[in-house]
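Action item from last week, closing it out:
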Amino acid sequence: MSGLVLKLRPSERIMINGVVIENGDRRTRLNVLTPNANVLRLRDAIHPSEANTPVRRICYIAQLLLAGEAEPIKARAQLQQGIKQLSSVFDDPEAGLHLREAQANLQAGNDYQALKFLRLLLPVEARLMEASP
């Protein structure tokens, strides 16, 4: 069996194709069999007021795309532009790898994987923000 496997904690919320679903009192394992379903764990979601750095803004756009809350063509264009801009700023090889993976997944239509690689840049950005005067 293929597809996305979600392991949910008690009372954990997820959004699937724009519908918020809350788990019951026990741990649950769900198999999402529909390809290209828009799935977002709400515990991982960035609130609009938290999209206050370049990486967080790009992750927020990817999150909107994944949740089905953004027009796909426009959101993907914004993401590609954002990845290009971040690529010119991050000179760390690991960050460059994450950006290339995000770009490749975005081009392949794997929005969830693109967001996953973009989120890996959050700690890198946080370290850079702390180091700046």
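Closing note: The mean pLDDT is 90.
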